[in-house]
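Reviewers of the previous submission asked for a worked example of the structure-prediction workflow described in the proposal, so we include one complete record here. The input consisted solely of the amino acid sequence. No template or homolog information was supplied to the procedure at any stage.
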Amino acid sequence: MFSGLRHMSRAVTVIRTLARNDALFPIENAGMPKIFSALIRASLLAPRKSSMAQKRPGERLKKALVELGPAFVKLGQALSVRPDLIGDTLADDLQSLQDRLPPFDGNVAKQTIEAELKKPAEELFKTFEPEPIAAASIAQVHRATLPDGRELAIKVLRPEIEAAFARDLDLARWAATRIEQARPELRRLRLVEAIDTIIRSVEIEMDLRFEAAAAEELRENFIDEPQFSVPTVHWTYTNRRVMATEWINATPLNELNLAEMSSSDTEDIVAVFAKVFFFQVFRDGYFHADLHPGNMFVDDQGVFHAVDFGIMGRLDRHTREYLAEMLHGFLTGNYRQVAAVHVRAGYVPADQSIDEFAQAARSIAEPILGLPLGEISLARLLEQLFTITKKFQMEAQPQLLLLQKTMLVAEGVGRKLCPDVNMWELAKPLIEQWMLERMAPETRIRDTANSMLDMFERMPFLIKEVEETLGRASKHGIQVDPTSLQTLTGVRRRHWTTGFWVIAAAIIVIATIVLE
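From that input alone, the workflow returned the following structure tokens.
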């Protein structure tokens, strides 16, 4: 009960902030009765209506999300790759949401380091620069020098950031659950699962030891690749709220002087970038999911250096094979292959027409693939593909959303470096070679044998689970699935939902009268 009251209290604040910015439309679309939104607007928007009316819906929503804090900025960034939820125009507006905040006091960062590492900063470092070199919603980075002269980048979490994120992401999950209950037709979008993905990602970001481990795994994956480097983690200076890596002497991609570079040099950089991205996604199934230009550096030898490993993505072998076949089908114009791989992967029910799916795939691909080479965007192609899936009863695939967002950012980087070159054309031979290796008969036989071995190894545990399930059913009877129970009690749920909006609208109107 108390958690529900807490969520309602914060939800009222969120609704009020959205209303002040004339951005109530997301929750109106989720089921907010129009009479209550009209009442809230009437009480809050009168003095600001003319100025807000000049802005696009996405701009108004962006402003509200920034006012609500870093957790909502993260949610906005996640929504920017869900045009199936919010539409193409709004998704495009949210793409520009920046994960940047004013820095916090460097002395506070120093105190955090000392508390985590159990030593005074003067003993730990020869020098420590209190002015941060970068500040985001979760942490900021300082430069330091060890007594032996080695330079470090020290990442420090913001004070009390864990509680702030936990409160708002818990609210988001609560709201997603209520939306799926009130709007069963939206369950195919798997809102709760999408929020859970964000929550898991943020929980990892909140413990810098996980980020340090992610950096080490990525570095090991590319230990034999001379053109890509990940900074070494200094574990002695790393703990839950502090992480230290070697300092990178290189230039961020967004600070390269492209005017002084030859076209062949920039094309070489894009080729390396495409190769590194391909290896991360397809070879390793483990990729850096925050590849904006400020996180990628190039040194004088043309070597790429990545930093900031708080957001990483994983893809299992099944998903990687699906992606490779699908992208190859699009790049070669084989739309029937695109349709068939969706059915084979289990993403689209087998009773759906492959020919109709192929026609739909062609309808979205031809306008994009017909653009000049430098303007072709496979990320946009995936985005459009997700928008047509409802017709073919395809559920949203949360594991692909992070990849689609990463692809969009990667394409932007490649296009800025070399506008006339398409990075996916450069990666196409790698995709084809990888597919040949994965689809070879000996590979298939080996994978099948390994799968059967895994199944046999799990068999005793599966048998035990079946026995325990049957035992519980015998002792306690068959229990109804919560989702089915919610469906059966839909009338009561709708009454509760209406009651919430009555209470929220009343609180907002009263607060407006008192505070403004």
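Confidence is low (pLDDT under 50) at residues 487-496, 509-516. We consider this example representative of the routine output the project will generate in years two and three.
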